[in-house]
Amino acid sequence: RAKAAGGNRFELADPEADARAITRHGLTTALPTALDRGEFFIEYQPLVHLGDGSVRGAEALVRWLHPQHGVLSPDRFIPLAEHTGLIVPLGRWVLEQSVRQAREWRDANGGDALGPLRINVNLSPCQLTHPGLVQDTVEILERTGVTPDALCLEVTESALIGADDDLLKPLRRLAEMGVDIALDDFGTGYSNLANLRRLPVSVLKLDRSFTQSMQQFPADPVDLKIVEGIVALAHSLDLAVTVEGVETGAQAEQLRILGCDTAQGWYYARPGPPDRLHELALVDATG
Ligand code: C2E
Ligand code: MG
Ligand code: MG
Ligand code: MG
Question: Following CA atoms 119, 75, 160, 42 in sequence, which dihedral angle do they give, to the nearest 10 degrees?
């Protein structure tokens, strides 16, 4: 396919873009049955306390084992699932699986002998507006016997920009029950910092771009000031600060000095199977 680009010049259509469009179409068609066929699975990435290095929990990250394309990352299919509405049942499945997993870790630990491992689950904006969110979450917690304070739901900053009270209501209900709400990818949106007071969040997840700017030691003084300011503001509002994408020891050290509470990244562990997380937590607790 070629399209006229004015005058007598012709521009060839980008074959890679075409291939991407075809795959996107194919993936969208395959999505609805993928859940029934059990093609999704979850990897867990540890959340580590920056002060003492202990594993405090994990973030659940969904993957799709596609019969033809192999393992697909969420960036490939979450937008499609949001577009088609499959994100609601898929998100519910991820929540149930992850909370069940948290219960299994707890049982394997002999109760909370190692300290409770908490579970973080991502919520898409479509799930926020779905009327079943609070009810589904309550039922999953009851069925699994996991207490609300072991669960943290991550919502991106951009999903809450300009959020009105109707959108915040389910999050407020969940927060009142004791579920933590984290503001994911913080610093990438354009939210008014003063707006934070209005949101029922208890955790800020500082975006990976901030961590990347901590590559050099010492880091750029302006970047240091910005992170320092965000941490001070967060702590003054009683919010904990988690940092994403920590890839080096220098970054971890820098962010620890800046007062961040928890970290996540390849420096500690890549996302992996649930047994791996349990091993990491065990090694960590027994030295
Ligand atoms: P996110 O919630 O911000 O998750 C963090 C992403 O950073 C993950 O990508 C993780 O694998 C990656 N990451 C962790 N440590 C490092 C590091 O040290 N360096 C680098 N370069 N990357 C690191 P992943 O697993 O591909 O997930 C991408 C996004 O997809 C997530 O971003 C989240 O927004 C979304 N997602 C994942 N699972 C779910 C889900 O169950 N539901 C919804 N709605 N969204 C999900
Ligand atoms: Mg997240
Ligand atoms: Mg994030
Ligand atoms: Mg992110």
Answer: -20
